[in-house]
Amino acid sequence: MESAGTAPRDGGTVVLRWAQTARSVPRARRELRRTLARWEWGAVEDAASLVLSELLTNAVRHGRVPGREIETHFARVPGALRIEVHDAPERRPLMALPVDGACGGWGLPLVDTLAAKWGIDDRRGSGKLVWAELSVSGAP
Fold it and tell me: What is the residue-level pLDDT of the chain in tens, covering all 140 positions?
C-alpha cells in the first residue's frame, strides 16, 4: 500500500505516509484534491496541487533513506491551507534560480511564487519538514 493515514474527525489535518517513489506524487495529489473537495476549498486546488507536487518530488528525489517513508500533512489553518512534507534527511533544500536552459530546479521558486509563505523547520526526531501556506478565500 502506498499511503496510510486517515482524516481526523474534526477534518482539520490529514496525515498520510508515502513510499519514496515517483508514483507517490500523483497519488498524494489525488488525496489532496479529495481533501479540498471535502473542505469545499476547490478554488485553491490547482495551486495546492502544484505546491504539493514540487515539495513531494523534492523529498522523493533528495530525501531517500532506506526503510523510511515520506509524510504529508494537509491542514486548515486560519485563512489558509498548510501543506507539509516530512522526510528523514537533515539536509535542507536551497532555493536558487536555475541556470538558463536547466530542465530542473524550478520547484522552490514556483512554491515561493504560489504560496503566501513557506519555510523549512526541524521536526521531532530526525529530518525536516518543508511547508507552504496558500491563502484560501472564506477560510476561517
Answer: 344 444 444 558 999 999 999 999 999 999 999 999 999 999 999 999 999 999 999 899 877 777 788 999 999 999 999 999 999 877 777 666 666 665 666 678 889 999 999 999 988 888 899 999 999 986 65
> Is the separation of the CB atoms in 136 and 81 below 8 Å?
yes
- What is this structure's pTM? 0.84
Report which residue type is found at 31.
E
Q: Report how far residue 16's alpha carbon sits from residue 57's, in angstroms, rounded to the nearest whole number.
A: 15
For 64, other C-beta atoms within 10 Å of its C-beta total 14
